[in-house]
Amino acid sequence: MACRDCLSGSLHEGTPVGREETVHGLPTYISEPPAGQDPKGIIVYIPDAFGWTFNNNRILADAYAKRTNSRVYLPEFMAGHHLPIGVAEDMDIVTGNGWMIGKILPMVHAIYCFIPFIYHNRHPLSKPRVYKFLSDLRAHESASLPVGVAGFCWGGKFVILLCSDAEKATGSNKSLVDCGFTAHPSGVVVPAEIDAVTLPLSIANGDVDVVMPLAQVQQAKAILEGKGKDRHEVVIVSGGKHGFAVRGEPTDEKAVEKGKQAEDQAVEWFTKWFEKYSQAS
What we know:
The longest helix is centred in the last third of the chain and has 28 residues, at 253-280. By secondary structure, the protein is an alpha/beta fold. Helix 2 packs across helix 10 (253-280) and helix 3 packs across helix 4. An eight-stranded mixed sheet has the order 1-2-4-3-5-6-7-8, with helices on both faces. It is built from ten helices and eight strands.
C-alpha cells in the first residue's frame, strides 16, 4: 500500500451536511436521506487513509445518502491515526518540478505521518473495530434494513473480506453485510480473497492503478463475473489512477468524470440490492 498515489490527491470543496455522533462506540459522521424519506438501507463507509474527517469522504457519503435514500455511517475506524491532508500536499511537492533539496522536508513529513498510520491500522488491529461496529449495527439497528458497505483504498480490502461472508453477526447467523462496493482497494490478495467472495460485490478500478495492477483487476473480473454477472461486477476505468473515486483533481474535467462514474456505479449497485431486499422481505 505504500505507494505515491496512496498519499496523493486533492481536497474537494463543499460543505458536508451530516452530523457527528457516537454510534456503536465510535465517533461517526452520519448522513441521512432527504427530508421526508425513510431510509431504504444503511451504508457503512470505510474510508481511505485520510479517514473519517476528510472532506472528500464526507461529501461522498452525503451523495450516497441523497442518491440512494439511505443512512450513511462514516465511522472513525482508525483510532485517530488517519493521514492529515497535508501529506497530499507534501506529495504534490515531492512529485512536482523543482529542486531536490526542496523536496526533502515534505518527503520526511510524509514518511513521518505514514508509518504510524500503517502501524496502528494494520489488519489485526483494525479488523476488530470494523467487524464489531457492523455486528452491533446488525444487532441494534438493521432488523428491517439491508446493510451495504463501501470502501476505498485502505477500506476496500475490508469490503472484499466482508463479502466473503466468513463471519456472522454476534448472536445470529446473519451476514454482517448484504452487499458491497469498493473502488481501488489496497492490499487485496488475488486470487484467494476474490475466490472467497459470495455476497454481491461491485468493484471499480482503474487500468493504470499501481496498487491493484490491470492484470490483477482482469483476473478478479474473470473470477467474480464467472460466478454470475447478476451478483458481481468489475468495472475497469480507462485512465483511472489509484484514488480516482475520492481524491481526483477537481479542476481536471476527465478526473471529475472518473470520480462521477465510480459514484454512479456505487449508487446503482446499492439501489439495486436494497430494492431486491425490500422485495424479498
